[in-house]
Design a protein that fits this description.
By secondary structure, the chain is an alpha+beta fold. Helix content is 28%, strand content 15%. Helix 15 crosses helix 16, helix 16 runs antiparallel to helix 17 and helix 16 packs across helix 18 (451-463).
Length: 517
């Protein structure tokens, strides 16, 4: 058992209002500079849609993530073998071009025209689009980070027809859902997932991309980066960017300077809807390769099995042997992420079929459901006046279960149904308490929840204070013998998955030392 620490996150999609406050906070702090105009380490997409960059979910197009290798102990990179990457080191065509992000490039407007004395008096002055890279004016506006905001242009003939998450539906089903823009829509906030099995780290030829030992944050060493851009290709979420001014790769750093002082990242702190949760997890790195190589329908449960119980005496003993201190162990026991992902099973990883084992999980959205009480606090679908007490039929949700399953559970509909059923059961239980003054425990039993779990779930999802939503242990480097040198963990370049005894570059006293076979 090789226990590692991981700062993990949960986004509650049922509460996201798409206000983009998180996007603005991140942009102002990290990418508001030359060379990073098109970078959005945090962005909020409207679903259905193809997102930012275009069709980032389509790995037949971009070849990101890992693929299952039958009979092997670990998956392999989808992009190419080590040999193929080396002979094509100076030519990497499999990555999104600027057109996929911004058409002709990121743009601003000629606001000076609105105040210029040269403006004609015969017509209203207009600010024309202007390239932020070349300075060219009157460029065509073809795409952008919020191009599909609130369902704009998402139709069968527009961008909606290319949405990867309709993969499991027939053309007729897809057309029905896209014929009317208001059939369903929800927001999907995205940042780097800081995966347990990161493709960007494994594919980096120079070993610049690495995963920190102390908290699992994935970073790119700007001194070692040579901009081979294989990290862009191998990241299935396309959250690595090339800075055209510095010639280096950049990505979300999870605001690690804030985390080291016990504060959540800027996008978490600024979230208006309070949809974001952060807390540490303990996981067994030795089990990651096998867990990432199981069939698609087993991936969600396999990732849950990798996450360790912080209350288990054996896990605590092994964690202490690995140098994990009491502040971290205590934080893991209070972690809201552990409860929602492992204990309650209401949070799911984004596109687990990419096999990177992301550390960012999502609570699936509950569709707008018209409900009525039946006198006992049970929730019933309106119109189902058959005298029976039951939860709403999930198949009648406006957001299709198939769509959510492809987005959040590698096509496993049962995982999505379990999460939604438990969320609805918690609502029914609370309704029975507040409206009718009596506890309806039967609805919890049907969903596999206890009363204590329902109370804690309601507290965390609806009423939690700042310190309950963000459980961030500080580093306490002063108590660590090799404090200045523990940051750098495993790094590319290797064809095997992390944890399967690859060659891992580590840093000690400024010198590189090869670890492994």
């Amino acid at each position: 058992m090789q226990i590692k620490r991981q700062m993990a996150m949960v986004f509650n999609l049922d509460k996201c209002i798409g206000c983009q406050t998180c996007t603005v906070a991140c942009k102002n702090v990290w990418t508001n500079r030359e060379g990073a105009e098109y970078m959005f380490w945090n962005n909020v997409e409207s679903k259905p849609g193809i997102g930012y960059p275009k069709e980032w979910e389509n790995q037949d197009l971009y070849r990101g993530g890992w693929v299952r290798k039958e009979g092997a102990e670990a998956p392999k990179l989808r992009n190419a073998s080590r040999f193929w990457e080396m002979i094509n080191l100076f030519f990497n065509p499999v990555m999104p071009q600027m057109e996929a992000y911004y058409g002709k490039g990121p743009f601003t407007f000629t606001y000076e025209d609105l105040h210029s004395n040269e403006s004609t008096t015969r017509s209203q002055p207009v600010a024309r689009p202007k390239s932020m890279i070349t300075g060219e004016e009157d460029i065509p506006l073809e795409y952008g980070v919020n191009w599909e905001d609130n369902g704009a242009g998402v139709t069968e003939d527009g961008t909606g027809g290319l949405d990867y998450n309709f993969k499991d539906m027939s053309p007729e089903e897809r057309q029905a859902f896209l014929s009317y823009q208001k059939v369903f829509m929800f927001y999907l906030p995205r940042i780097c997932n800081h995966c347990m099995n990161p493709g960007c780290v494994a594919a980096c030829p120079s070993g610049a991309a690495y995963k920190r030992e102390e908290d699992g944050v994935v970073l790119i060493d700007q001194h070692r980066c040579r901009a081979w851009r294989y990290c862009i290709t191998s990241c299935p979420y396309k959250k690595v960017y090339f800075n055209w001014r510095t010639g280096k790769m950049e990505k979300c750093i999870l605001c690690y300077p804030r985390i080291e002082t016990g504060q959540p990242p800027a996008c978490f702190h600024s979230c208006v809807g309070r949809i974001r949760y952060m807390g540490p997890l303990l996981y067994d790195m030795d089990r990651v390769p096998a867990a990432a190589n199981v069939p698609d329908l087993e991936l969600v449960q396999a990732q849950r099995d990798v996450i360790l119980d912080p209350n288990d005496p054996q896990v605590i003993e092994e964690a202490r042997k690995s140098g994990i201190g009491e502040p971290w162990l205590e934080a893991c026991r209070r972690s809201p992420v552990y409860k929602m992902v492992k204990e309650w099973r209401i949070a799911l990883p984004l596109h687990s079929e990419f096999r990177t084992m992301p550390s960012l999980f999502y609570v699936p959205p509950e569709s707008p459901v018209q409900t009525t009480g039946n006198g006992h606090g049970n929730i019933r679908m309106a119109g189902k006046d058959d005298g029976k007490q039951h939860l709403p039929n999930l198949e009648e949700f406006r957001v299709p279960i198939k769509y959510l399953a492809r987005l959040l559970a590698a096509g496993n509909e049962q995982e999505v149904k379990t999460a939604l059923t438990r969320l609805l059961a918690m609502r029914a239980y609370r309704r029975s308490m507040r409206v009718y003054g009596q506890s309806n425990l039967e609805v919890l039993k049907q969903a596999g929840l206890t009363e204590k779990q329902a109370i804690e779930m309601h507290r965390l999802l609806a009423l939690a204070h700042y310190h309950e939503r963000f459980v961030v242990p500080t580093a306490h480097r002063e108590a660590t013998a090799n404090a200045p040198y523990i940051e750098r963990g495993f790094a590319g370049y290797d064809e095997m998955a992390p944890g399967a005894q690859p060659r891992r570059r580590q840093w000690f006293h400024g010198a590189k030392q090869e670890v492994g076979s």
